[in-house]
Design a protein that fits this description.
156 residues, three-stranded mixed β-sheet, 2 domains, single chain, alpha+beta
């Protein structure tokens, strides 16, 4: 009988230790989760993208380029895949129309892209050309870029 009492007390002591360890682990995991979730507050990181709009974008008159897209080429003023030249700091507006097929206009370095549109539909994008250089604009649909639907955006 005394032997059974010692075994029972041993089991209770082991259970208490395991419960305490479990509580400590849960507190650590919960605290880490709380810290991670709260570290994103105030950073603009949410379920959707958040961007600060540059005041310059709103107050400056845009240099507007009317560009059409058809299978595997852009056309502006009768020129295929023309160079688009602007000055650093210019506000640029691309007014894009698909005249044949499904296309868009995009330049990665300025995070500028129109919506993808079909025959006869138009879209536009505005951005500030805030760095000098030569950048490739292109159609991001399928293999259009690889098939030659691209040109140069030159920022002087």
């Amino acid at each position: 009988m005394i032997h059974n009492i010692y075994i029972t007390q041993f089991i209770i002591n082991c259970m208490n230790k395991n419960i305490i360890i479990l509580i400590i682990v849960l507190l650590i995991v919960g605290g880490a989760g709380f810290y991670i979730l709260n570290s994103f507050k105030g950073t603009g990181v949410t379920g959707g993208a958040t961007f600060n709009v540059n005041d310059k974008l709103n107050n400056q008159e845009a240099k507007t380029f009317v560009v059409n897209g058809e299978n595997f080429k852009f056309i502006m003023n009768g020129v295929n895949n023309p160079d688009i030249k602007v000055k650093q700091g210019d506000k640029v507006r691309i007014e894009f129309t698909s005249t044949s097929g499904f296309h868009d206009w995009k330049v990665d370095e300025f995070y500028a892209a129109t919506k993808q549109v079909v025959d006869g539909d138009s879209t536009s994008v505005e951005f500030i050309a805030d760095k000098k250089g030569t950048f490739e604009y292109y159609c991001s649909v399928g293999q259009h870029r690889a098939n030659g639907m691209k040109g140069k955006l030159i920022v002087e």
